[in-house]
Amino acid sequence: MAKVKSKWICQECGYESAGYLGKCPECGSWGSFVEEVQFSTKPQQVSAHDEFINTEKPTLLKDIKFDEEIRVSTNISEFDRILGGGFVQGSLVLIAGDPGIGKSTILLQTSGELCKNNKKVLYVSAEESASQLKLRAERLSINSDNLYVYPQTSMENIKTQIDEISPDFVVIDSIQAIYSQNVASSAGSVSQIRECTNLLMHIAKTKNITVVVIGHVTKEGNIAGPKVLEHMVDTVIYFEGDKYKSYRMLRSMKNRFGNTSEVGIFEMSEGGLKCVTNPNELFLNERSQGSIPGTAIVVANEGTRPLLVEIQALVGTTPYPSPRRVTNGVDTSRVLQILAVLEKRVGLNLSKQDVYVNVMGGLDVTEPSADLGIALAVATCARDVVVDSQTVIIGEIGLSGEIHPVNNIEKRLNEAVMSGFKKAIIPFSNSVPKDFDKLEIIKVKRLIDAISACVNSSKV
Questions:
Q1: Which of 80, 182, 194, 414 is least buried, going by the fewest C-beta atoms within 10 A?
Q2: Under DSSP, is residue 431 helix (H, G, I), strand (E, B) or coil?
Q3: Whole-number Å distance between alpha carbons of 238 and 159
Q4: Does some domain include residue 44?
Q5: 210-215 and 4-10 beta bridge pairing
């Protein structure tokens, strides 16, 4: 009889220890160690991976042939965008997001669209019953003869049904609720997630079946389970959204078959998730008519897509010894750096001023091309002047107050033209085609030049 041993595994990063530890030395998380049973000798049952062992030999790259229709479109334009044109056959895709954000909804909608293309889909529901899934399908108006629903948590039973049905696509909802009998630990543990994902990966690669896995996230926003989970899959997609807003965003963080950092934008409605073809209307629909001090429109890139967003700033005298710096939608450290440049290079005294910076619409702007817009929003609010509402601002700010060039400037300017803007403030180093006369271009070398251009153009 095999000896039974136990080990303690961190559920955040997978670090193993012989005894319990309050704090993980690898990732620093507290109270994340869980005891898992370990056999000193392998169990008598045959490993689930043994049947995948084959005698194939290496093939020359030039001799490898593949089907031109290796990608399968989902018929959902925003989903296809982040996938690089559609699902790749035999790939393993991981979708993660907060509870209730819409992961199951988007995959059930995708399953219905795939069935319309005569694809056979197996939807494994490990957290809902078949009747509960039927209720959601009726709300989404999904009814297909090629969509199989299988409420199951056993990996061995799921594999048996995959062998019998031979589907083209498999959806696992969710991987944290699936367990394998070959691992002596509870569902959701590091060992179970690693084992089940590894088995699904073998199924996808050997049977040329596309497998989509739903993963939970921790309170910090990271994917629950071992970090190796993200390395095993081909594509990692995060489902993001503000619970106070109706829109949702799919963000590609890893994609072996397409561009990374792509974003797909959806709007949540009673009939499910709908694609937002013109996101600028979504983020600028509440923009005030006319000019208000402390507002600026920037063109930020999300993947290959330029988005126009409004940045608002509020500057006021503080009653406290230390002024407050509050940001929403932008990096706080980046804003502090911009405020330091405004004080040192422009002479704007903010040491006794509270500064609030907000991105309208709940979008997170991370790229540095929004620096100039943030600086002008703060400066115009402090000086009680306005930036013309028909002007877009693009530029990165250096520590000496210089304006650095940004990439994809022509694509950003074309997007501004399509949204009806008349003027653009851009870095001097960015080159614009000579025949580009759709916008009035103002090129600036330093931050003080950009502020002067705003002050000279309009005053309250």
A1: 414
A2: coil
A3: 26
A4: no
A5: unpaired
Q: Which of 222, 381, 390 is nearest to 313 (CA)?
A: 381
Residue length, the chain? 460
pLDDT range class, residue 31, cuts 50, 70, 90: confident
Q: What's the pLDDT band for 66 if we cut at 50, 70, 90? A: low
Q: Work out whether the CA dihedral 176, 230, 305, 330 comes out positive or negative.
A: positive
H helix runs in 332-446, sequence order: 332-341, 371-383, 409-418
Torsion of the alpha carbons at 263, 268, 269 and 273, rounded to the nearest 10 = 50
Residue 95 structure tokens: 């979708």
Contact of 361 with 336, CB cutoff 8 Å: no
297: in domain: yes
Q: Are residues 364 and 426 located together in one domain of the fold?
A: yes
In angstroms, the CA 130 to CA 423 distance is: 56
Q: Same structural domain for residues 137 and 263?
A: yes
Residues 201 and 242 in one domain: yes
Rounded Cα–Cα distance for residues 213 and 104 (Å):
10
**How far is the C-alpha of 397 from the C-alpha of 330, rounded, in Å?**
15
207 or 188, which is more confident? 207
Task: Report how far apart, in Å, the C-alpha atoms of 93 and of each of 84, 228, 316 are.
Answer: 13, 14, 48
Residues with Cβ within 8 Å of residue 316, at least 6 apart in sequence = 353, 354
Q: For residue 380, what are the contacts with CB-CB under 8 A and spacing of at least 6?
A: 293, 294, 295, 296, 313, 386, 387, 451, 454
| pTM confidence score | 0.79
The CA distance from 450 to 388, in Å, is: 13
Find out whether 409 and 430 touch, Cβ atoms under 8 Å.
Answer: yes
Helix (H, G, I), strand (E, B) or coil at 293: coil
pLDDT of residue 152: 95
Number of H helices, E strands in the chain: 11, 23
Residues contacting residue 106 through CB under 8 Å, at least 6 positions apart? 76, 79, 95, 239, 250, 266, 272, 273
Q: Is residue 46 part of a domain?
A: no
The answer to whether 226 and 14 are in contact (CB under 8 A) is yes
- The CB density around residue 447, as the number of other CB atoms within 10 Å, is 26
CA distance 249 to 269: 14
At 292, is the secondary structure helix, strand, or coil? coil
Separation of first and last alpha carbons in the chain = 86
Torsion of CA 12, 17, 18, 20, to 10 degrees: -50
**60: Cβ contacts below 8 Å, ≥ 6 apart:** none
